[in-house]
From TrEMBL:
Enzyme class: transferase
Protein name: Phosphate acyltransferase
Entry function: Catalyzes the reversible formation of acyl-phosphate (acyl-PO(4)) from acyl-[acyl-carrier-protein] (acyl-ACP). This enzyme utilizes acyl-ACP as fatty acyl donor, but not acyl-CoA.
Taxonomy, superkingdom: Bacteria
Quaternary state and interactors: Homodimer. Probably interacts with PlsY.
Gene Ontology biological process terms, A to Z: fatty acid biosynthetic process; phospholipid biosynthetic process
Lipid biosynthesis among keywords: yes
EC number: 2.3.1.274
SUPFAM superfamilies: Isocitrate/Isopropylmalate dehydrogenase-like
Compartment(s): Cytoplasm
Keyword Isomerase: no
UniProt gene name: plsX
Length: 354
């Protein structure tokens, strides 16, 4: 039985989204138990009204809620009994295999990092997300906003944890292909940090395929794309805006006249397929990767369908025991890097002596 901790009060709509989303998720997965954290009276009332299966839900009371615009450090300092903090504590104490929240992103990251700490060898956690691509393939991209400025070593660490997560969730696909997001595929292109990262990745045991450009995200030719949080967040927001624009433009064109309205009826099956494939709710659930615990961030403005998919993401990671596999993989990769660095230092010493 997989147990997930849920911040029931987080997000723009709170219980109006988290409760129906949780119930929808429980209908899809039979071997899951939810620990839902929030104001006990309000939460139990909402669950009762929705006829929730209470034999599969435990309610834990919390007295505080982190507001969506609250400063992360203030939330960390002053909201120790928030639904967000208590949910993450369930993971730390071993009562749940993962925590899910639609609350304040900055506060969630600060709290999760403080409570759970990072995996040994990982300096900073990254925000990772699976994106749809060609032929039902999915591409993992990180970092998507947690770390605006990164060193080459940190980007290398993102590549390691991203590769290990992909391998844990999709073992049948073989060694994940790792690409470094850049302005061109040539090794000489990019900032000094990107060039240094390229060198580190080339010397690693990862399946590094080189630099990739932004137009590679949806081709299915790469499994893990690494970038700093500044670039990654811009790419993500651009994708979200482009999909929204395309959907609106197609809808507007089909409403232009009677002929296009008739064409829309004929095209409806294809249009529905397109909408489902790129529905952002289906890919809701960003992963705070690099922590000693699984934490999933749902979009704050999502609906119940989207929140259910965030719970689904947490379930798959917990079910695949992804955290243990990531920790093992990180230790192995960092050992290889340390050994190669030592060899380089010995070679440099030998050259100097010669």
């Amino acid at each position: 039985m997989i147990t997930l901790a849920v911040d029931a009060m987080g997000g723009d709509a709170g219980l109006d989204v988290t409760v129906p989303g949780a119930i929808a998720f429980l209908k899809q997965q039979s071997n899951v138990h939810l620990i839902m954290v929030g104001d006990e009276s309000a939460l139990k009332s909402a669950l009762a009204a929705a006829q929730a299966p209470m034999d599969r839900i435990t309610v834990i009371h919390s007295t505080q809620v982190v507001e969506m615009d609250e400063a992360p450090q203030l939330a960390l300092k002053n909201k120790k009994d928030s639904s967000m903090r208590v949910a993450i504590n369930q993971v730390k104490e071993g009562h749940a295999q993962a925590a899910v929240s639609a609350g304040n992103t900055g506060a969630l990251m600060a709290t999760a990092r403080f409570v759970l700490k990072t995996i040994p060898g990982i300096e900073r956690p990254a925000i990772a997300k699976f994106l749809p691509s060609a032929s039902d393939h999915v591409t993992l991209m990180l970092d998507l906003g947690a770390n605006v400025d990164c060193t080459a070593e940190q980007l290398m660490q993102f590549a390691v944890i991203g590769s290990e997560l992909y391998q844990a969730l999709y073992p049948a696909k073989g060694r994940p292909r790792v690409g470094l997001l850049n302005v061109g595929t040539e090794e000489i292109k990019g900032t000094d940090t990107v060039k240094q990262t390229f060198k580190l990745l080339s010397e690693s045991n990862l399946n590094f395929i080189g630099n990739v450009e932004g137009n590679t995200v949806f081709t299915g030719n790469v499994d893990v794309i690494v970038a700093d949080g500044f670039v990654g967040n811009i790419v993500l927001k651009t994708i979200e805006g482009a999909v929204k624009f395309m959907g609106g433009a197609i809808k507007q064109e089909f409403k232009a006249n009677l002929f296009t309205k008739a064409a829309a009826l004929v095209s409806m099956p294809a249009l529905k397929g397109f909408k489902n494939k790129f529905d952002p709710r289906r890919f809701n659930g960003a992963i705070f990767l690099g922590l000693r615990g699984v934490v999933i961030k749902s979009h704050g403005g999502t609906d119940a369908v989207g929140f259910a998919f965030a719970l689904e993401e947490a379930y798959h990671e917990a079910n695949a025991a992804s955290l243990a596999k990531i920790e093992q993989g990180v230790a192995s990769q960092l050992a290889v890097l340390a050994e190669k660095q030592l060899e380089s230092e010995h070679a440099a010493m030998a050259d100097n002596l010669g």
